[in-house]
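Tutorial, part two.
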Amino acid sequence: MATGIVLIIDDEEKLRALLARIIRLEGLKVLEADTLKAGGRLLDRENIDVVLCDVKLPDGNGVDFVRETKVKFPSVEMILLTAYGNIADGVAAMKNGAFDYITKGDDNDKIIPLLARAMEKVQLQKRVAMLEQQVGKRYTWDAILGNSSLILNAIAMARKVAPTDATVLLLGETGTGKEVFAQAIHYGGKRATKPFMALNCSAFGKELLESELFGHKAGAFTGATRDKRGLIEEANLGTLFLDEIGEMHIDLQAKLLRVLETSEFIKVGDTKSTRVDVRIIAATNRDLEQDVEQGRFRDDLYYRLNVFTIPLPALRDRKRDIPMIADHYLHFFARKAGKRIEGFSKDFLEHLQSHDWKGNIRELKNIIERAVILADGPLLAVDNLPSELQVVGLRTSGPLSAFDLASVEKLHIQRVLNHTRGNKTEAARLLNIGLTTLYRKIEEYKLSYEA
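Running the prediction step on this input gives:
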């Protein structure tokens, strides 16, 4: 049996002592009370898991006490004990939230198995609560990293819209964290305990996307052997995040518009409407206004989606946030790899901040993961970076670097090695130098290359 605390409330001292002794033999901690008032004080003071309570007590009725306790402590399981079996009391107890209702004496052999089941339920509820807390923490505003004014402004806008049901449109390049923002808005709002469903509209063709989004009836098309609920229906009462909304076929845009306007849709192959209550958060890296002008995106859908727009900044526009983000992923991947890595070398950070980051946070995350895998020491060093990042600092190392022949030669040789994927023979041919000379240059400039 799992560990936990059991409270016995009974005014019969001998019976109470007997039950306590039996339960303690199972490895559980036992507290005792002879009145409901005394039991209530213990519930307030101790982290009690299960209560064994007599029905008839000097200061009240156990059936009523169940209702009061479950309101105040919903996770506590209650088992009622009575000297006289009473169907009406049993029904009332179960309605009030009791785990079970048993008769004293006749059912003594059932108490331990019953108590074990009640304790298992309590422990399961605790694990679920812990997981929910972890999920909530993972998707809170703290999951969005950065202190620059651009990202703080985006977070402030998201916080304001989160408690509402307004449709949100997130605009930003690939890898800027649009789904992280969508999750934070969902879990920061009143739908937090309801489903969050995400769909990348660029990952499916028109027909498959329609089925994934709206669902279908059995027989609607070849292979549709049974009814299928679409993600809009799965997200009912919660939030549906539509990433890359600009890639949605224009015919499907009309069906999505109907959901936004009427909260209804028709499944593929169905003849009647399905009603839903779902919040839509959409995201795109496209210029939807331009797509509207060119006829690739419906203007009426654009205006419905554009209720509340949040632009997300590119990483290159908030480079002061790079050390914080890099440090977060360093510790995450170091724990995952079982390595003790304390931080970064100065040159490593300088190279990170010199990079353009076309892939934004996603690219930075991948670079840090790779560096952690390659690292042998306590600090991530330039040698742990991909070759294209190792030479990026040469372009911004100072005004004289452009006129320094060694710097230019080093950069050129590195580029040729990258082009040949580390094939030194081919690199020497392209550079029109001897292979021995190339080896000497590689050693002299401490060059690395992708083998």
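The first strand starts at residue 5 and ends at 9. In part three we will examine how such features are distributed along the chain.
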